[in-house]
Amino acid sequence: MSRAEARDLAARFCAAFETAGAVPVDCDILQSAETLLDLYGEDIRSRAYVTQDPALGERMLRPDFTVPVVEAHMRDGAEPARYTYAGEVFRRQEDDPERAPEYIQAGYEIFDGRDAEDADAAVFARFAELLSEWELTPATGDIGILSAAIRGLETSERRRSALLRHIWRPRRFRALLDRYAGRTPVPATRTALLEAANPMAAAGPMIGRRTEAEIRDRLVALREDAAEPPLSDGQVDLIETLLKVSETCPYALQHLRDMEVDLPALRPAVDRFARRCDRLAAQGVDVDTLDFEASYGRTSMEYYDGFVFGFSAVRRPDLPPVATGGRYDALTARLGQGRTLPAVGGVIRPDLLLALTEDRA
Prior knowledge:
Blueprint (H helix, E strand, L loop, with lengths): L2 H17 L3 E2 L5 E3 H8 L9 E4 L3 E5 L4 H11 L4 E10 L11 E10 L4 H15 L6 E6 H9 L5 H9 L4 H11 L7 H8 L16 H15 L6 H11 L2 E3 H12 L6 H16 L8 E3 L13 E6 L10 E5 L1 H7 L7 E6 L1 H11 L1
Parallel strand pairs: 1-5, 7-9
Antiparallel strand pairs: 2-4, 3-4, 5-6, 6-12, 7-10, 8-9, 10-11, 11-12
Helix pairs in contact: 4-12, 6-7, 11-12
């Protein structure tokens, strides 16, 4: 497999997306580190290549195309709009040195608020059609359903916000859920801190960037949280049951409808799932055999907040997904200074498809 072959295959995908009405766009390889750190936090430093420019400040080699495409559209684009692109992205692979730190992506993005579920279905169906010559298995999910369940919990807004913030960090999410349910003991150091009449009296010299006022605000928040009643076992069980939903779309929909009885906040998100299933069927997708996992995408698709999907090679479980995508309305709000535009899209890795082609040869 050569880089030229990967470029040719990416160009083929872009041509197909152009046929669907997409406009070709390009993005700078050096991206603003400030924007990406704002979105992902310091965690992204372990996954991105960072450099310092004397005039522009801290920069990152492009880790993906979606962020710069959204930035450009929110600044200059009109709705509705469709874009396609291809080029290199860069990801550090320290945990898995066998994976390529630089590879080519081809992508397709739709900004259209007229019918979100129809746009979801159009993107998925287009990807399914383009990838049909390879032996791939599709999977779908919906981060919006889990988010709706969290927003429906009978607890404080602070706790709901913390759980929503850590949806994409399953271990941290699990730890918070157990703590809020009273299933894990409060650390002795925190208990002593909260019981002290004036915790700041025994504090040492101020170091770091936090001011004394910020520290005191944090102490107030910790005391308020400690006074909160625990989440009921029933609410925790509902979240745990939801995370385990993994069935074909019709059975998953039936399961989620049953859960609405105990958690009515799910209904709008499940209604969207039902409409999406109808739109997918109208696009020729076999929904009866399409897999749905409520927790799909939680470890790798951080800025998606609704429908998510991926295509994987069953015979090569060592490979990452060949294609991934989904809905990221919240990202447009973050990059659009409060202005939100419904958006959905996805990316394909030609290098992985070429590796599968070589396996067949």
